[in-house]
Amino acid sequence: MAASHRLTVTDIQRMRDEGEHITMLTAYDYSTARLADEAEIPILLVGDSLGMVVLGYDSTLPVTVDDMIRHGAAVVRGTKRAHVVVDMPFGSYQAGWQEAMHNAVRIMQETGAGSVKLEGGRRSADIVRRLVTAGIPVMGHVGLTPQSVNALGGWRMQGKTPRDSVHVMHDARALEEAGAYAVVLETVPAALGSKITRQLRVPTIGIGAGPYTSGQVQVVNDMLGLFQDFKPKHARRFLDGATLIRDAFVAYRKAVESGSFPAAAESHLLDERVQRYIERMEYSREINPDHEGIDFEDAMEDIELEGRPAT
Ligand code: KIV
After folding, report:
1. CATH topology for 9-238?
2. Which of 33, 186, 213, 216 is at 20 to 30 A from 197, Cα to Cα?
3. In testing the pocket of ligand 1, which one of 59, 124, 141, 218 has its CB within 8 Å of the most ligand atoms?
4. What does the alpha-carbon distance between residue 214 and residue 264 come to, in Å, rounded to a whole number?
5. Cα separation of 201 and 160, whole Å?
6. How far is the CA of 50 from the centre of ligand 1 (A)?
């Protein structure tokens, strides 16, 4: 979708209504966000997955509101066109709607993002309704919700049995009814992803939810092949980033060790006379910040004379 303005939730709904497949990608920093924006990725999610792929925690639970704000603001600064969604981290909305409102307002004000995302279906519906009523667009997230990994008993596919699939369906519908502008479906059977997408009027964004959702989201470190700890089944590596980057690091180390880096073009060179002056400089232990007793003009003239061929 060509757009001259920053995309809004209305644009995202229009994309879904016009049958356009919606691409969403996570981003956590300025440089990556800038590249993704140049690649015309319409939605950038500052996911709390940053806890695992950037900060090295073994789950998303330790991520704080301040973490999300720091990274969210960097992603907004790196983009002109993308709609930026910032995850509300674990503990920032579970204690009640007042705290959720306080944290969502902070995230919106301090990052400049276009919306927030939070996890949970029916259990989060009241909070979603209140945030939306206050003018904060909310993306929902059901199925495998990583902030509940301890309650779910691990990173397991959700909605596998008829009973569980009905639960996931009700969760997604509750979010739509509460006013969520889109719903992430994570790690559910493709048939369920398809069914929920046909049932909802708002876009569904799948990750491990099959090909029939309105859009797809990938964790940027997975799709660039940077995250080495494990490869989720739903991730596709569009680049072997780890090999490319490791090879570049080795080449850099070898260039330093061999003395071939930095070359003249990578060094700051001075006028030849000033260079000669620096070479002749004698280190004085006296602190002489005002250069007392040093006549630079004279010194430079001496150097110039020295450099002249004898007549
Ligand atoms: O935090 C995240 O990256 C997410 C996506 C996996 C949807 O929530």
Report:
1. TIM Barrel (3.20.20)
2. 33
3. 141
4. 53
5. 23
6. 9
Q: Where exactly are the structural domains of the chain? A: 9-238, 270-307
Ligand 1 atom closest to Cα of residue 117: 8
Does the predicted model carry a pTM greater than 0.85?
yes
Q: How far is the CA of 48 from the centre of ligand 1 (A)?
A: 6
* Residue partners of 158: CB distance under 8 A and separation at least 6: 142, 143, 144, 152, 164, 168, 186, 187, 188
Q: Which pLDDT tens digit goes with each residue over 6-44?
A: 999 999 999 999 999 999 999 999 999 999 999 999 999
User: Hey, which of 49, 141, 183, 224 would you mutate to test ligand 1's pocket, going by the most ligand atoms within 8 Å of its Cβ?
Assistant: 49
Ligand 1 atom closest to the Cα of residue 146 is: 8
∠ Cα 235 90 37 (to 5°): 45
